[in-house]
Amino acid sequence: MNIKLILYVITIPFSLWIITSMRLEQFFKKGSVMQIHCLSFTLSLILSYMLVGFLLDMFTTARFF
Fold it and tell me: How many CA atoms lie within 13 A of 38 on its CB side?
């Protein structure tokens, strides 16, 4: 199995857990629950994309030394 896919499977729930601990509802109008969930999911995908890129760079850099 591809290591990148494994890292995404690990980091997406982790980043979603981190994002949901933030109080994003204070930036939205009352009753806009769907928009808050969409933003949380989008931010978690962005965070996991950046985290996987960082981890892969660290693995490849450490392999060459």
Answer: 5
